[in-house]
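seq as requested:
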Amino acid sequence: MMDEIGNTTMIPWVGLSDMRNEAVARACRSGCEYALLIENDALPEPDMLIKLMSEEMPIVAPIIFDKEINGAKVGIGLPQRIADNGIQPMRWVPLTAVLFKVNVFNATGPMPFASTTLESQLFQLLWHYGHRAWMQTDVELKVASQPQRMFTKDWKSLWEWLERTYDRMRNDEPDRSYKSE
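struct tokens:
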């Protein structure tokens, strides 16, 4: 089953929790064993899902690179991981693309994203119930744009960014084409 959850608000990050909760609810109602939550700026390789499922982990994500340290590309998440080190335990991973075994959400109730606004908070909640996130450092996920880190912008820059994003969401058709490098 493949399903797209529409945006519930014009402010980009505000509706993410609702959309994620709806995706989990649909997966649970449909009897799915796994749910891949993937955001619209992700550019997955065609075999990414197969590679993540082959790990047979309750929570697994690909590596998304943010920067280089001493010549090594470093992934987003905690602890920071470098490429090509196989499957690695994590405290949190970016929610840009995460494969969840649906029964993970039996512990959290029907709205696991409702009380969490940051990735680290969700994974702390899951950790409390004995679920650990894993990162497959051999599977890279490219994204259309780097993380925005909106709260590090000054108010004027943030407002301009919000206006551009709102206009783009309201006026542009979503680009669902696959772009491979």
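The first strand starts at residue 34 and ends at 38.
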